[in-house]
C-alpha cells in the first residue's frame, strides 16, 4: 500500500485505497506522486482491505477513497466499490474522495446522479485558482470557465464538494488578479467548504526549479496576507465554510461565510501587525513538511 494522503477534515473517516498515484500527475507544484504510476487496485486488493477492516465495520459513517484522485475511476467501477462498502460497512452514509475537474467532465449527468444515490458526495476538488494564467502556470489542464461548468454539474446532480485553492499561485505581481478571479469563481460555485493553502514547492517539481531559477516571483509573507484580504473581502458564498488551517498558511483561520467574514478579516489584520512588529512582513517564509511555515526560522 502506498502513502495515503487525505484532507485534514477527513481525519475521522475510514480510508480505503482504490487507486495508486494520480491520473493527471502533471501539476507543476506537486511532488506527491511524481515517482508513482497511476494504477487501479484489483478486486482482490480491495477485498483484502475490507477483510482487514471488518472489526471496525460499525464504527464509521464516512469513507474516504484513496489515493490522488479516485474519482478518475469509471462510474461503473465506483458503483461496484460503493456496493462493496455498503455491504460490508452498513453504517456508512457518505463516500468521499479527491477529484479533478477533468474527472467530473468524463462522467455523464446520469452517471453523476447515480453515484450520488449510492452515497458518493462531498468530493475534494483541487481547483487551486480562478485565474486562468495561474491555472496554466500550474498545468491544471482546464480554464476557470470550464471548472465552473463542471462544478455546477456536480451541484445539479446533488453532490456537494470542497474546493481547494492556493494563494500565491500567480506570483506576487498578479496576487490581486488571482484573488479577485478566485473569489469570483467560488462566489458563483458556492462549495460547501473552501480549503485554503499557500503555494509551496519541494525539490522534484517544475515550480521548485522556477523559484530557484528566479522565473517565478514567490510571494512574501505580507503578499500572502494582501492576497487573502482581497479574496476574503470579495468572496460571496453564503453558507460555505472556509477552512484555512493548513500549516502552509501565513494566517490560519476558519469560519462560515458570510457570518464570520468580518471576524476573519480582523484576525488577518492582527496577523499583519504582528509580522510587521517582528520585521517579517517582507520576508519569504521558510517552509517545512507540507509547506508548513517555520516561524522561528522566518525571523
Descriptive overview:
- α2 (75-88) packs parallel to α4 (109-117), α6 (144-156) packs parallel to α7 and α9 (221-234) packs antiparallel against α10.
- With 299 residues, the chain is α/β, with parallel strands linked by helices.
- 37% of the residues lie in helices and 15% in strands.
- The model has no long low-confidence stretch (mean pLDDT 94).
- β9 (241-244) and β10 (253-256) form a beta hairpin.
- The strands form two sheets. The protein has an eight-stranded mixed beta sheet. A two-stranded antiparallel ribbon has the order 2-3.
- The protein has helices spanning 43-53, 75-88, 101-105, 109-117, 132-137, 144-156, 175-189, 206-212, 221-234, 261-277, and strands at 14-17, 19-20, 39-40, 62-66, 94-99, 123-128, 161-167, 193-198, 241-244, 253-256.
- The protein contains ten helices and ten strands.
Secondary structure layout:
Blueprint: E1 14-17, E2 19-20, E3 39-40, H1 43-53, E4 62-66, H2 75-88, E5 94-99, H3 101-105, H4 109-117, E6 123-128, H5 132-137, H6 144-156, E7 161-167, H7 175-189, E8 193-198, H8 206-212, H9 221-234, E9 241-244, E10 253-256, H10 261-277
Parallel strand pairs: 1-4, 4-5, 5-6, 6-7, 7-8, 8-9
Antiparallel strand pairs: 2-3, 9-10
Amino acid at each position: 500500500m502506498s502513502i495515503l494522503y487525505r484532507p485534514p477534515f477527513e481525519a475521522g473517516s475510514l480510508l480505503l485505497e482504490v487507486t495508486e498515484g494520480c491520473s493527471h500527475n502533471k501539476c507543476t507544484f506537486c511532488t506527491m506522486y511524481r515517482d508513482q504510476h497511476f494504477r487501479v487496485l484489483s478486486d482482490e486488493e480491495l477485498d483484502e482491505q475490507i477483510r482487514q477492516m471488518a472489526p471496525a465495520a460499525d464504527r464509521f459513517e464516512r469513507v474516504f477513497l484513496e489515493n490522488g484522485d479516485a474519482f478518475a475511476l469509471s462510474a461503473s467501477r465506483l458503483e461496484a466499490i460503493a456496493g462493496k462498502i455498503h455491504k460490508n460497512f452498513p453504517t456508512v452514509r457518505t463516500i468521499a474522495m479527491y477529484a479533478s475537474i477533468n474527472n467530473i467532465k468524463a462522467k455523464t449527468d446520469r452517471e453523476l446522479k447515480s453515484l450520488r444515490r449510492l452515497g458518493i458526495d462531498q468530493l475534494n476538488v483541487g481547483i487551486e485558482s480562478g485565474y486562468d494564467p495561474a491555472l496554466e502556470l500550474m498545468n491544471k489542464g482546464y480554464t476557470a470557465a470550464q471548472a465552473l461548468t463542471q462544478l455546477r454539474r456536480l451541484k445539479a446532480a446533488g453532490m456537494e464538494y470542497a474546493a481547494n485553492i492556493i494563494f500565491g499561485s500567480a506570483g506576487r505581481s498578479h496576487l490581486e488578479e488571482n484573488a479577485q478571479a478566485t473569489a469570483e469563481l467560488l462566489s458563483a460555485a458556492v462549495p460547501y467548504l473552501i480549503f485554503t493553502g499557500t503555494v509551496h514547492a519541494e525539490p522534484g517539481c517544475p515550480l521548485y526549479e522556477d523559484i530557484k531559477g528566479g522565473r517565478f516571483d514567490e510571494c512574501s509573507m505580507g503578499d500572502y496576507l494582501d492576497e487573502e484580504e482581497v479574496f476574503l473581502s470579495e468572496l460571496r458564498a453564503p453558507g460555505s465554510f472556509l477552512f484555512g488551517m493548513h500549516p502552509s498558511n501565513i494566517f490560519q483561520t476558519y469560519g462560515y461565510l458570510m457570518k464570520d467574514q468580518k471576524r476573519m478579516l480582523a484576525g488577518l489584520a492582527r496577523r499583519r501587525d504582528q509580522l510587521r512588529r517582528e520585521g517579517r512582513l517582507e520576508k519569504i517564509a521558510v517552509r517545512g513538511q507540507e509547506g508548513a511555515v517555520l516561524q522561528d526560522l522566518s525571523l
